Amino acid sequence: MVIVKCIGELHFYLEKVVMPKEWFWFEAPKEARLEFWKMSPYGKMLDIRAYVTDYAIDQESMQESAWAS
Description:
Helices cover 14% and strands 42% of the residues. It has one helix at 59-68; strands at residues 2-7, 13-18, 33-40, 43-51. The longest helix is centred in the last third of the chain and has 10 residues, at 59-68.
């Protein structure tokens, strides 16, 4: 299980617990940053901090992958 946090300008905030094998799609401002928190024996621990553009998928590539599957 991981906790995904997306923080952007103008009070944009999104937080979701994502379970193993679960897909999580969302829209966010291009300037937003992502934080991936994982669980450890000592509690929550920040694992990855990145910008949302590092993980962005555009509409065209989504349509192509939908036809491929």
